Amino acid sequence: MVRPDERAEGAGPFTTRLTWRLAEGGSAVWESRLARKRGALRVRAEGGAEAPPRSADEAALRRLRTLNALAAFAFTIGGALFALGAAVAQAGSVSATGIASIYFAGGLFFNTGGYTSLLQAINAPRRSGATDSLVTRGWRWWSYEPARIDWLSTFVLFLGTLVFGVNLLDSFLQGLSAQQENRLIWAPDIVGCVLFLVSGHLALVEVCHGRPCWRSRSLGWWIVAVNQFGSVLFLVSALAAFTRPETGSLINVDIANWGTLVGAACFSVGGVLQFFERP
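Now predict its structure.
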C-alpha cells in the first residue's frame, strides 16, 4: 500500500518507484530495479542534492552479486550457443541432430539464467517502512508475487525458457510431417518468443517507470533494450520457420537462421553487460 506521504510511479497496478520524506529531512527514493540489482536506494538531501545511496547489508549484497554473476554467465553462454547453432545451420555443415544438440545445450543455460533471475527478484532486499534502509528476508526458492513487476517479468522470462525447452526437445524427433513439425516444434517456439517479449516489455516498464524513455546513461536500460531487441528477432525468426504443409519447406530458412543468430547474440551481449550491473 502507498501511504499519503509517498509519491508512487509506475504503470497500472505496478509500482516501480517510490519517493517519501524522511523524518530527519530530505527524501528517499526506492526503485524496483535498483533495489533488486544493486541492493540500494537513493537518498536526497534537503534541496534535492543527491546523497550517497543506502545499501543493504553485506550478506544481502553477496547474495545479489552471486545471483547476478550466475544469471549473466548463463545468458552469455546460452546466447553464444544459440548463435553457434544458427551459424552451423546456415552453413549446413552439421547434421540436424548435431544442430539440435547445440540448441538444447544453449536452452539449458537459458533455463538456468531465467530461474536465477527469478531468484534474484524473490530474494531482493525490501524497503523498511519510511526509513532510508533496505532489509533482507531469509532465503527462498519460490514465491508468488504477481503484484510486483520485477517478479512477474522474471517469472514470465523463466516460463518462456521452459516453453523453449519443449521446442528444443521436440527438435530431436525424426520423420515428422509438416503438420507435426508446426504443432510440436514451431508452436512452442512462437509461445516462447511471445513470453520473452512480454517479459521484456515488463522490464522496460520497470526501468522507465511506465513511460517510453531513452536512457543512454543507464546500464539497466541498455541491458533491457538489447534483450528486447533480441526477443523481437527471435519472434521474426520463429515466424520465418513455419513449415509450409504443401511443400514441407520453411517460409524463409535464411531469415530463420539469421534472426536466431543475431537475436541470440543480443542475449549474449546483454549477459556480458549484466556482469557490470551488480552491487
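The chain has two domains: 6-55, 58-274.
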